[in-house]
Design goal:
Elements (H helix, E strand, L loop, with lengths): L2 H52 L3 E2 H9 L8 E8 L5 E7 L2 E11 L5 E10 L17 E9 L24 H7 L7 E8 L22 H27 L6
Parallel strand pairs: 1-2, 5-7
Antiparallel strand pairs: 2-4, 2-6, 3-4, 4-5, 6-7
């Protein structure tokens, strides 16, 4: 093999390496920029939710119309009036302020005969059964104010256990099954929930106002990580280049 044939691969290697470095740098910067865009989007979403929660409540009909048109009803404050069907309440397994128990979802029958499932709030594990909190079983016509919550399209994750309908323990809010399990016709049930506000119930149970806005916002941390890796790559390349340029060529 001639000397020229030896030299050509050596010349190609820095070019290939440089191209790979540029590609890696472009990917890292793109990921960092994407996380910055996600950060702005998440901050806007959280600000929008805060505005909705602080707004005056609207009539139930407004939320119905918005839901029917495909609008975003999540966390919008609403007021509804009806009578609780206490013997058809459903129990959603939950923790509240470090205590294990259940959120009590009770159908609220409206004046027109339709039904709205209301998350009345939290009860400790030992108070799951209604007879353990009879004072809170409201029987007269009630007006509830709370936050509208959209119906889930399906099980949120494979890690979530299946609902135990026989024991009335729900691990995810399957509105259709909740209604079906207590004999309510699907056509009568409004296609969303309402989380009741913190208005006290007799004897303190259920504890209302349990809505948790759990939207993690770690995008700034992720952006800094990707940009930091890009900076480290540049430093490594610069050090390598300076070391090579300081060496004397082989004779």
């Amino acid at each position: 093999m001639t000397e020229a044939e030896h030299v050509m691969p050596r010349r190609r290697l820095p070019v290939i390496t440089g191209m790979l470095v540029l590609i890696a740098l472009a990917v890292l910067i793109s990921l960092g920029t994407w996380q910055v865009e996600r950060l702005h989007w998440k901050e806007g979403l959280l600000a929008d939710i805060a505005t909705r929660q602080a707004a005056a409540p609207v009539p139930l009909a407004d939320i119905e119309a918005m839901a029917a048109s495909g609008g975003d009803i999540e966390y919008r404050k609403v007021t509804a009036t009806g009578r609780y069907i206490n013997n058809k309440e459903r129990h959603f397994f939950a923790t509240w302020r470090g205590q294990t128990g259940f959120y009590v979802y009770t159908p609220l029958e409206l004046a027109d005969g339709r039904v709205l499932f209301v998350n009345r709030g939290f009860v400790p594990y030992e108070n799951k059964e209604p007879e353990m909190r009879m004072q809170g079983q409201l029987t007269d016509q009630q007006t509830v104010t709370g936050l509208a919550r959209a119906k889930l399209p399906g099980k949120p994750s494979r890690l979530v256990p299946d609902n135990d309908v026989a024991k009335n323990i729900f691990y995810w809010k399957d509105l259709d099954v909740m209604a079906e399990s207590v004999g309510l016709e699907k056509g009568r049930v409004l296609p969303f929930f309402v989380d009741a506000d913190s208005t006290p119930n007799p004897a303190g149970l259920p504890v209302g106002g349990v809505t948790q806005v759990d939207l993690p916002n770690d995008h700034l941390q992720y952006a800094l990580t990707w940009y930091g890796l890009a900076a480290v790559l540049l430093v490594v390349v610069a050090i390598s280049w300076f070391r090579k340029s300081g060496k004397s060529p082989r004779q």
